[in-house]
Write a structure and sequence with these properties.
17% strand, 9 helices, TIM Barrel, alpha/beta, 43% helix
Length: 210
C-alpha cells in the first residue's frame, strides 16, 4: 500500500489567473493537503506549462506530490511526481511504462470495480471512485456511485482508494468510514471562505479516524 496516497487530495479548479491559483493552492498545502492534482481543462498548452511549473515549485516547498491530470507529456517534461488518467485518457500500462516504477499513477474508475481491477493490474498506484455526491464541477452527472463500493474495493484491492465528487466536510466522514484512503476535493476547498482552515478541518477528519 502506497502511503503517499492518504488524507486530503486537493484538485485545482479551472483558474486562468495564475497568481490567484497559486495563492489558493498554497493555502490548501499550508492547511494540510497531502496531495495536489493540477487539473485545468480549458487551459492552453502554454498556460498549462506555466501553471504546472509554478505548482511544482510549491509542492516541493511543502513536500507534497504534484499529480498532473491527463497530460502525460507534461508530467514527464516537468518531472512531476505523477499522473492521473480518466477513462478516455490513454493506456494505463503505457503510462506506467513511460513514467517508470517510482511515479504515482492514478486512474478514475467511476463506479466500476472491474475498471479498478484492470487499472491495478496495469500498474496504477491508486484508483479513484465517484462521483458520490452532486458536484458543481460536473453538474450534468446524474449517476451516483454508492458509498458501499469503497468498502468493497478496499476488500478486493491492494492499492489505495480515493473518493471524488461533491465531497464536503459534512459528507466526507461517511466516505472515510466506508474505507476511503483519501478524498479528492475541488469546490469545497477552493471556493471556501478560508481555504487554509478548510484544509485543516479535512486533515482533522483523518486524524479522528485514526
Amino acid at each position: 500500500m502506497d502511503r503517499r496516497i492518504s488524507g486530503l487530495y486537493a484538485v485545482t479548479p479551472d483558474n486562468a489567473d495564475t497568481p490567484s491559483l497559486l495563492a489558493g493552492v498554497e493555502a490548501a498545502l499550508a492547511g494540510g493537503a497531502r496531495l495536489l492534482q493540477y487539473r485545468n481543462k480549458p487551459a492552453s498548452p502554454a498556460l498549462r506549462l506555466t501553471q504546472a511549473r509554478a505548482l511544482l515549485a510549491l509542492c516541493w516547498k511543502y513536500q507534497v506530490p504534484l499529480i498532473i491530470n491527463d497530460h502525460l507529456d507534461l508530467a514527464l517534461a516537468l518531472e512531476a511526481h505523477g499522473l492521473h488518467l480518466g477513462g478516455e485518457d490513454g493506456s494505463v500500462a503505457d503510462a506506467r511504462k513511460r513514467l517508470g516504477p517510482g511515479k504515482i499513477l492514478g486512474v478514475s474508475c467511476y463506479g466500476k470495480l472491474e475498471l479498478a481491477h484492470a487499472a491495478a493490474d496495469a500498474g496504477a498506484t491508486y484508483v479513484a471512485f465517484g462521483g458520490f455526491f452532486p458536484s458543481k464541477v460536473k453538474p450534468g452527472k446524474v449517476d451516483r456511485t454508492p458509498v458501499g463500493l469503497l468498502t468493497e474495493a478496499k476488500r478486493a484491492l491492494d492499492v489505495p482508494v480515493v473518493a471524488i465528487g461533491g465531497i464536503t466536510l459534512e459528507n466526507a466522514p461517511s466516505l472515510l468510514a466506508a474505507g476511503a484512503d483519501s478524498v479528492a476535493v475541488i469546490t469545497a476547498l477552493f471556493e471556501a471562505p478560508d481555504t487554509r482552515a478548510t484544509a485543516r478541518h479535512f486533515r482533522e477528519l483523518f486524524r479522528e479516524r485514526q
